[in-house]
Each structure stands twice: as C-alpha cells, then as structure tokens.
Amino acid sequence: MMEWMSTIAAISPMRAWGIDVPNYFWFTGSSAAAFIISSFAHVFGFKQFKPIAGFSLLLAFVLLVAAPFNLIDDLKQPGRLVNFFLYGWENFGTSPMKWGVLLLIAYPVLILVEALILYRPYFIKRMEEGRGFSRTFYRWLTLGRASLDAQSLEKDHRLGFTLGAVGIPLALCVHGYTGYILGAVHANTLWHTPLMPVLFLASAMVSGTGLLLVLLPIFQRFFSLSQAIDRSMMATLAKLLAWFIVIDLVVRALWLSFAMPFGMQSRELLYQFFSLHFNMVVYVEYGLCLILPMIVGFSKLRHNLGIVIATGVISAVGVWLFRWNTVIGGQEIPRSMPGFTQYIPEIFGQNSIVSVASNWGIFIALLALVAVIFPWDEEMETHYQGVNNGSK
Amino acid sequence: MPNDPSRRRFLKQGGIAALAGATSAQAFSLKNPGRDAQDPRYIGDAKAHYAMVIDLRQCVGCQACTAACKVENAVPKEQYRTFVSEFEIGTFPHVRKGYVPQLCNHCDNPSCVSVCPTGATFKRKDGIVVVDSEICWGCGYCLNACPYDKRYFNAQTKVADKCTFCAHRLQDGLLPSCVETCVGGARIFGDQNDPNSEVSKMLATFPTSVLKPHQGNAPQVFYISLDSRLEAVHEATPMLDDVVRKELGLLDKEWPKLPRGVS
C-alpha cells in the first residue's frame, strides 16, 4: 500500500441513506417471502401449508403496507411525494426506484383482492349475522358477490389461483427491484453486481420464514380459536427455513467468490471492507444467524418449539443485519476521500432508531387491525378440522 | 354485462377524453415542467458543449476556488461544490505536495441523471448537469450514484445540490467563479464545440486524463498532468491520515447529519 502518501486535506462526502432503508428492504423482502409461502398452498397445491396460507397472505399484505413509510421518512422533502408520480418518467428504464411506484401499488392491491376472495365466505357469514354498520362493512368486503353456491365458490377458487400465480412474479419483482436499486449503482463497489436482486430474494425468504416462525406461534397460542400451536407446522417451517438458508448461502458464496478474487477495482476495497466488518459478518451474520438456524432446521432440534422460535428470531435478525451491512456498509466505502466513512444512526428524528421503531409500531398496529377484520382464525381452524382432524 | 354497448361506448369516449387531456396538459408531460416549457435556464446554450481543463502544473492548492465557489453560490457551512484535496507524497527529505481540485464532472453519461426518479436532475443541451431544486424530493439516489461524490444535500434547501459550472454567470457572459479566481490559471473553461476556445486548444495540445474512466461516465472535466497515484488515493485505505478532517472533528459527524446551525 502507499504508506509514503498521506492526506493533508480532503472533504467528507455526504452519504444519503440511513437506517430507514435497510428496514424498508427487510419489510418488502419478508412480505414477498410470506406471499410465496402462502402461494405454496394456493398455487402449488402443497396441502400441508393450507392452514397458514391465509395468515401468511395477510402478513404479506401488512408488511408491504407498512414498508413504504420507511421510504417517506428517508426523504429530505417528504412533502414532495407527488413529484415522484408526476415527473421523471423519462428515466423509467434506468431508475429502478421508479419501478417501485407501480410495484408498490399493484402488489398490495393484488394481495388485498386475493385475501378478500379467500375470506369471502366468512365475510358473507358475518354480513348475514351483522346489523347496521357491521353489515354494510362486511358487504363491502365481499366486493358485492354475496352468493355461496358451488359456481361462485368455484369462481373464487379459480380467481384465487390466478391471483396467486400472478402474484408470485409480482412478489419477486417487488423485492427484486430493491436489489436492482443497489445493483444498478456502478459507483458502489459492494452493490454493483447482477446478483444483488437474487441475493436479496434469497435472504428475503429466510427473513420471511423466520418472521412466520415468531408470529405464527404467538397468534395460534393467544388469538386462534383452539389456542394451540401447530408444532408439526413449526417443524416443517423450520426445515423450509433451512432449505432457504442453503439457497441463500449458495448465492452469497457465488457473489463473494466472484467479487473478491476476480473483481477489478473492487477487489482491494472489498478485502478491506470485509476485514473491517469481519467479526460481524463471519461470526454473527453467517455463523450465528445462518449456519446455526440451518443446523436446527435439518436436525431433530426443529421439533423443539422454544428452539425453533429462537431460530426464527435470529434468522430474521440476521437478514436485517445483512441488509444493514449491505446498504450502510456499501456507503462506508470511500470514493473521493481516503478512508471509510462512519455511520451511527440518530436516536430521535427523521431517519433514526425511533423512526424505525415507530415503523414497527405501525406494522404491529396494522397486523392487529387486519387480524381483527379478517377471520383468519376461523379459516385456519377449518383446515385443521378438515385435514389434520384436529390433531396438533 | 361486459358486452353492454352503452358501457363500451362510455369507456371508449372516456378513454379518448383522458388521452387527449393527458397529452395536452403540461402537468401530465411526466418529465419536468421547466424543460417542457423550454425555459432557457433548463436548456442552456444549445450550440455549446462546456468543459473544464484543470492544469495541475499550475495549481498551488490555495483553495481560492473553494472560497469563491462558496461565496458565489451561497454554499452552506461545511459543504462544498468544489474542493482541492491535498496530499503529501514521499518521505523526508524527498517530499512533495500533490493537489487534486475536484468538482462535478458534468459527465456526458451522468449516472446521477439516469437514476433520478423525479427527473429533477438532468443534463442541459450545453452539457451542464443541473438540479431543479423545486422538483427534487431528496431521495439521495443521485448522491449514491455519483462515482465522484460530488453531490450533497444542501442544508438550506434540503435537496440534492452540486456544481453548475456557475450556469447563472455563463448566462451573463461570465466565467465560473472558480475559474475567474484561480491565481495560477489552473482552471480553464470553455466551449468544446468552438475550436478557437481556450479549452479546445488545451485539449488539442496537451494529453489529458479524467478521474475514474472505468466508470464509463465520460467526465467533461479534464486534468493535465494528473498523477494516477493521487487518484488511487480516492479509493484508498483507512491507513491514510487526514489531518484536516481530524482537526475539524468531521470524522465524528460526517454521515447522518446535515451541518448544524445553517438551516
């Protein structure tokens, strides 16, 4: 290295993205994963996932509705949100951020419609039982189709399948585009790889499954009709998580084994970057948050409920750290001055720890609201009675 | 129901009306109102293609350009549109100084422009890359896309900001303030399309180089006598000391905040 050269004066460049952005990426990714898990039952016909398909679909919806608040908070001029819709369409082909306008509108609408169709028979029941406002409200939710004859139910099934099938590429796009946002930035050594969307999707499947492993037992134990946790489902999800981790590790291995030895200008910087964050990346992100959950998922430990829930937590946290290390870490890398920049999030204010915590608050509030409106518990119960005969 | 003729007619007529409205109304051009209106500030001099040559043999690192730019463009405290990075090369007694004046490169292929989701930043016909501070929503995509780190969020306007080659001065037939103030005559500015301009003559006479050519941005700021080792410093290691940044305490507050006390 050039020890014989030293800097006397340089300016610190300003970096744009703070803690809100990794959080946004985590939310959209987990949403895509929850949607795909729900589609296992709705589209691919994996019957064992039927009981959680509805819940997973609602979770995908709530995650995606909560996610964009992070972006608005990250803006320096959030009051100009409308400009995003009015102007700049000439850059549609080259600005992945622009794709988000269409995706972030189309995707939640699609999930909502799919959920409304899935739960239509229950809404009709509630509509018939209800009076006054409740009756009107549930009539809206049936989208004006109040018939429950075989033909209507068949139509529901067909629509559910179609929306699920269209939704899978859409879900992949919703998260894939966030990978494009970073991957398209050729100025950033860490981000500029065509693998970025795939990396994001692979890790998203891990975080989404991890989140389900945490939320499902909470909802089943405290809010479902039978108040019983489906332990075999938890074990199945833990194994699914392990397979997703395998895919994630393979993609990451492809990424790093290419960028580090064969990268041109990037090679040296990536070595420095990973030396700087060695402990965090190797021991925490890979060892604790990926390898360990993978071992749990593939071993008999997956039948231990406590361990599986803890596995869900650490794998979801691990993917959050990966988002952080990618978004924030990428911006630490120097481009016009010597040395890595540093980022410590603010505690209060815009783009701060409290704003991210507030976003989680929005997520939890929305999840509670959706769980109250949608009869996910009744729907879940029918599958257990029908398929598993109530054995849990 | 879907084949109901009255409904079809309604959709057809409504569609045509909506299309006509969208194509005629200025607000629905989906680009940038200033550019659509052919405002001269947005178009510039259509015949010119501006460029700058920085002759490093003449630069003495006095930072007069830095100061002139800040005053001319009211650049907020601790923010810069141009700056001269200063390095020390070699070990005692064989030591010399190296300077790299830096500013927006007004690239012919600007990565900040292509990623802008609001069309707030764009390249004028004379090659100058500008930001429409009324349209920019402050997402920061351009800050991340610029390989040269030559953009920042202006602490006062709260939108992306950068060097404009002093477009407001060019409009009045003046030179950019950094060029006018340069004591060594190291900064030469002019129209590349005019073969008699000083900048064209310099480009024709001397071998020049640009920063980070591998990025493919085609910068329009050219350096004479650029020591490639100095450029390498910009992608260098944490080992290199930075006296001024340490002295000013910039290391502690460089990323998350806009500078205090100016907004």
From TrEMBL, chain B:
Keyword Iron: yes
Entry keywords, A to Z: 4Fe-4S, Iron, Iron-sulfur, Metal-binding, Molybdenum
Keyword RNA-binding: no
Domain 4Fe-4S ferredoxin-type: 50-80, 95-126, 127-156
Superkingdom of the organism of origin: Bacteria
Pfam families: Fer4_11 (PF13247)
Name this protein carries in UniProt: 4Fe-4S dicluster domain-containing protein
Organism: Sulfurospirillum tamanense
